[in-house]
Design a protein that fits this description.
Strand content: 5-15%
Order of helices and strands: EHEHHHHEEHHHEH
Family: Belongs to the CoaE family.
Number of helices: 9
Helix content: 55-70%
Strand order of the largest sheet: 2-3-1-4-5
Pathway: Cofactor biosynthesis; coenzyme A biosynthesis; CoA from (R)-pantothenate: step 5/5
Distance between the termini: 18 Å
CATH architecture of the largest domain: 3-Layer(aba) Sandwich
Low-confidence stretches: 205-209
Radius of gyration: 19 Å
CATH topology of the largest domain: Rossmann fold
Shape: globular
CATH class of the largest domain: Alpha Beta
Structural class: alpha/beta
EC number: 2.7.1.24
Mean pLDDT: 90
GO biological process, one term: coenzyme A biosynthetic process
Pfam family, one: CoaE
CATH superfamily of the largest domain: P-loop containing nucleotide triphosphate hydrolases
Number of strands: 5
Length: 209
């Protein structure tokens, strides 16, 4: 098995990279999706969030009121740290389970674990490769305004709330430059996939009896 940690700032083209790897046959695990799953009604994490932040963070049906919770932790480092201490271990446990299941289904599986906050959350998975989707800030701003309908102030705030490009690039084993055309981005992802398949093949040969 081969586990790729994929990250990138907002509007960096990370989803495009993930989709292309999945088209090649990779198993996609989305950390944002897992973060929603682990706080569904009936979960231990949601119970702990309620104990920590109060009943006001729940909707009438018992589900998490994300807006109410966000209002409590936004701009409050201590409260955000409390929330992360609940959610991050639950996400880690679930992602470990999914990675093990992928390996059981196919010992040669390539898993792309899509973690937007790989730097911020200090995710400690033993990745075989960390891939960063990268575009400059001007490009990302333009995408957020033109494609997502954000105003420039909100776009700049969203970018500023995340880790810096320098921090992400510092942990990268591979950088996918998404500033250019879609074809240019996809060609880099295709080359990455071929590299990973080759490394898996060599590993299989080395591990053969």
């Amino acid at each position: 098995m081969y586990v790729i940690g994929l990250t990138g700032g907002i509007a960096s083209g990370k989803s495009t990279v993930a989709r292309r790897l999945v088209e090649h046959g990779a198993v996609h695990i989305d950390a944002d999706h897992l973060a929603r799953v682990v706080v569904e009604p009936g979960t231990d994490a949601l119970a702990r969030i309620r104990e920590t932040f109060g009943d006001e963070v729940l909707n009438a049906d018992g589900s998490l009121n994300r807006a109410a919770l966000g209002a409590l932790v936004f701009g409050e480092p201590a409260a955000l740290a409390q929330l992360n201490a609940i959610v991050h271990p639950a996400v880690r446990a679930l992602s470990d389970e999914l990675i093990r299941a992928a390996e059981q289904a196919d010992p040669d599986a390539i898993v792309v674990y899509d973690v937007p906050l790989l730097v911020e959350a200090d995710v400690a998975h033993p990745f075989d490769l960390i891939v960063v989707a990268h575009a400059d800030e001007e490009t990302r701003m333009r995408r957020m305004v033109d494609l997502r309908g954000m105003d420039e102030t909100d776009a700049a705030r969203r970018i500023g709330s995340q880790a810096s490009a320098a921090d992400r690039l510092a942990i990268a084993n591979v950088v996918i430059d998404t500033d250019g055309t879609l074809a240019h981005t996809l060609a880099q992802v295709d080359a990455l996939y071929e590299r990973v398949r080759a490394e898996l093949g060599r590993s299989t040969v080395r591990g053969a009896p």
